[in-house]
Amino acid sequence: MAYKRQTDRLPIIPADAQEFNVVCRYCIVGCGYKAYTWPINKQGGPAPHENKFGVDLGRQQDIETEAWYAPSMYNIVKQNGRDVHLVVKPDSNCVVNSGLGSIRGARMAENRPSRITGSQQQRLTDPLVWRNGTWQPTSWDDALDLVARVTARVITEGSEDDLVVSMFDHGGSAGGYENTWGTGKLYFGAMKVKNARIHNLTCSP
What are phi and psi of 38, to 5 degrees? Predict the structure, then answer.
């Protein structure tokens, strides 16, 4: 049984599971991972044609086999409004990490919010807007529209120099890299923001 996870069996990834190439979000190295998702009421089998790895799981695997994953690499999450199995495991074909996973990267699945497993219940699942004296969930379209209108008002009633943004940028030296690459391109490239408050230690323990 896995320590502290109360897990003594993990589902086999079926051959037709969705596969995604992802990158670890915790530092600037860029280790590659594979993410797999499949319906909650389905799993693969030990025969080579029944699992994603295409191997006979009824036999003892080699020490460095790709055909395994740890409990920390597994969770049950929402995808397109439905509960699905999720596995995020190191990609052995990535030249950066060659199948190795860091202590944080190898927990990316476990660190996803899940109402089924109870992981990360404190994480937000929707944008929040301050309305009627309280924070209320709203849609992304509504939140982005509000940000756009406030930004336009600041520029119209003042100038572009009056725009100030607050963001984190772990490892990117304020260039908008890693998991702030998108916001960096928006703020510094498109909007030409000159004033920014940057917090660089979001991923530190």
Answer: -160, 160
